[in-house]
Amino acid sequence: MLVDGQIKGVAFDRVTCALDRMGQPYEIIMMDWSQAQLMTQTGEVEGFFAGSPNKARAAYATPSDPVITENLAWYMLPGRSIDPTSEADKVSARYSAKFATSKWLGLKRDGYNVIKKPRDAEALLNMLRKGDIDVALEYEMIFQYYMDQAKMDADDLIKIPSTPQSNMVHFSNIFLAANPLFLGRFNSFLAICKEGGK
Asked: Gene3D superfamilies this protein is in (predicted)?
């Protein structure tokens, strides 16, 4: 995430740590999530992070080992009695997640009534607060950050824990074909960085 014009976060720290230890030159560019995936698919960039694996991504990229594993949760405003696991509530309530992510695509695939396409978690939270959606699906750590930024208390939203999900760097298959030893080396250094060996 971007904080005071600087890219910050656990995933960023771990990825840059691994690349630095490898002695690998790199440039990290913040861009729209769907654009990052398209540019990886076309080979314009070497990869994107951090995202969970899915069939669409597997067609053009290979994931690293998990960079971060985070708990997903459903969020709604107090006073709502929506059960995201209920078949009836799947179609009657209005859901969203960050657009073009595995979470958003998974909701669509699983038959949820997905009505918005927020570009990031901050926009997702704002949609929820304004009542544009009834339920948001997001990582707890990320949503907590934006709740803190908005000066929200924990009881300003109902949180229903969901499942943990691992997120990886997705390296372009075009890049990996030209650099067959890269992914193994990256994963080795990533393991060191995850243990705190910066």
From this structure: Periplasmic binding protein-like II
CA 113 to chain centre: 20
Every domain of the chain and the residues it spans: 2-68+166-194, 70-164
**Quick one: 70-164 is in which CATH superfamily?**
Periplasmic binding protein-like II (3.40.190.10)
Of 190, 165, 148, 135, give the one whose Cα is nearest residue 24: 190
Rounded to 5 degrees, what are φ and ψ at 6?
Answer: -115, 140
Q: State the pTM of this model.
A: 0.72
Q: Give dist(CA 195, CA 22) in Å, integer.
A: 16
Supply the pLDDT for residue 153.
94
Q: Residue 186 in 3-state DSSP?
A: helix
What CATH topology corresponds to 2-68+166-194?
D-Maltodextrin-Binding Protein; domain 2 (3.40.190)
